[in-house]
Amino acid sequence: MKNTAAPESRQSVKITLDEDYSRFGIYAYHPGEITIIRPNEAYSAKSDGFGHQTLKKETLDDSLIIMPHCLISDWAPRNIDELTEQHFDVLPQKPPQILLLGTGASQIWPSANILGALTNQGIAVEVMDTAAACRTYAILASDGRDVGAALLVE
Predict the structure, then answer these.
(1) Closest by alpha carbon to 153, among 47, 72, 38, 67?
(2) Residue 45 has pLDDT above 80, yes or no
(3) Percent share of the chain, pLDDT over 90
(4) Which of 150, 153, 154 minimizes the C-alpha distance to 70?
(5) How far apart are CA 25 and CA 59, in angstroms?
(6) Residue 6 pLDDT > 50, yes or no?
(7) Cβ atoms of 106 and 128 closer than 8 Å
(8) Alpha-carbon Rg of the chain, whole angstroms?
(9) pTM here?
(10) With 70 as the cut, is the pLDDT of residue 14 above it?
(11) Cα separation of 1 and 114, whole Å?
C-alpha cells in the first residue's frame, strides 16, 4: 500500500495525552521547535471554568534538557558538532538514570569522550534523533521512570 500523505504532514507530531500536570512533559515536536508542558502551580491543574483541566504549554526553539522535575530551556549547543562534555555540567546534582540524547533531524553519535563522561557518572545514554527522543521521553516519564532528555533543536 502506498502512503499518499504529503511529507510535511508527517513532520509535526503531537507527543502525549498524559494528564499529569505536576511535572515537565513534552507535548509536541516539530522540526526546529518543541512544545513542552510546564507544571502548574502547587502541582494542581487549573480548570478552564467548565471542569476541564488546562495545560501550561510553551513552545521552545532552543536546545533543552528536560526531566520530570527540571527544565534547562537555554541549553547552549544547537547541533551535535557543538556538543562537548562541559554542556552536561548543567545536569542536577542527582542526574537521571537514563538520558536520551536527541541529536537533531537524524541520529548522529557523539564523541566517545562525551558518552564516557556521562557513563562514568552512572548515566545510561540512549542516542536517537530528536523526534524519537521526544516520544521516548514522554513514554518513560509517564511510566514514572528516572529519565531525562537532552534535545538538540536545529
Answers:
(1) 72
(2) no
(3) 70
(4) 150
(5) 12
(6) no
(7) no
(8) 16
(9) 0.82
(10) no
(11) 42
Q: Where are the alpha helices (DSSP H) in 37-149?
A: 112-120, 130-142
- 95-98 own/partner pairs: CB under 8 Å, 24+ apart: 95/121, 95/122, 95/123, 95/148, 96/67, 96/123, 96/146, 96/147, 96/148, 97/122, 97/123, 97/124, 97/145, 97/146, 97/147, 98/123, 98/124, 98/125, 98/126, 98/140, 98/145, 98/146, 98/147, 98/148
User: Can you tell me the distance from the alpha carbon of 153 to that of 62, in angstroms, rounded to the nearest whole number?
Assistant: 6
Q: What is the pLDDT of residues 50-64, one digit of tens each?
A: 555 677 899 999 999
Can you list the domains of the chain with their CATH numbers?
7-151 (3.40.1230.10)
Give the three cell numbers for residue 135. Answer: 516520544
Task: Report the first-to-last Cα separation within the chain, whole angstroms.
Answer: 33
What CA–CA distances, in Å, run from 87 to 20, 33, 50, 63? 29, 20, 44, 11
Q: What is the pLDDT of residue 5?
A: 45
Residue with cell 536520551: 100
Q: What is the pLDDT of residues 91-107, one digit of tens each?
A: 999 999 999 999 999 99
